[in-house]
């Protein structure tokens, strides 16, 4: 009888032990939980920054990384638009200087050219004027894009600063200042070219007036090219 009671007690302990849930340490459960959340975030597209040990990355650190990526891409956009705008200003300046030289050459030889030579020069001048207009339109187009890049960099710099990525903010602001300085230098070249062309225009009006007066005084009429007298 005693042997039967002892056997029943041991059987009961074994049965209760088999039904008892396994006990896990809190640290292990935390790792499993964070790993599951991390997998869900990556699979659902909620996190754009790749990582391996999620438990070591806070929201602040992820935001700083994202801000740095934004400043890098914004700087690349700024660099490309700055280069395009500077090249456009330089090409425009070259075109204006060429037009200025052609017009000065024509004024210097006024009254000394044959009708055929005069017509040939004017065809070149008209073509150069068209090229100047094309270059000017190109400058306006690239400048519009460059202004957008500047605004984007200013926004990215502010976002980086507020997120705690001070180094990225300082770097993009420095790059922005350099780009603005380079663009201003190139813009000055185009403005100087415009000024010289305006001076030539004044000289053109005076020279044509003198030439016309000279023809009238000598009772000799020679038609001044209509294309040259028209407004640019």
TrEMBL record:
Family annotation (Pfam families): Smac_DIABLO
Family from the record: Belongs to the Smac/DIABLO protein family.
First-listed, main subcellular location of the protein, grouped into a coarse class: mitochondrion
Record-level GO cellular component terms: mitochondrion
Superkingdom per UniProt: Eukaryota
Subcellular location: Mitochondrion
Name of the molecule in the record: Direct IAP-binding protein with low pI
InterPro entries the UniProt entry points to: Smac/DIABLO-like_sf, Smac_DIABLO
Lineage: Eukaryota, Metazoa, Chordata, Craniata, Vertebrata
UniProtKB keywords: Apoptosis, Mitochondrion, Transit peptide
UniProt GO BP: intrinsic apoptotic signaling pathway in response to oxidative stress; neuron apoptotic process; positive regulation of apoptotic process
Organism in which the protein naturally occurs: Channa argus
PANTHER family reported for this sequence: DIABLO HOMOLOG, MITOCHONDRIAL, DIABLO IAP-BINDING MITOCHONDRIAL PROTEIN
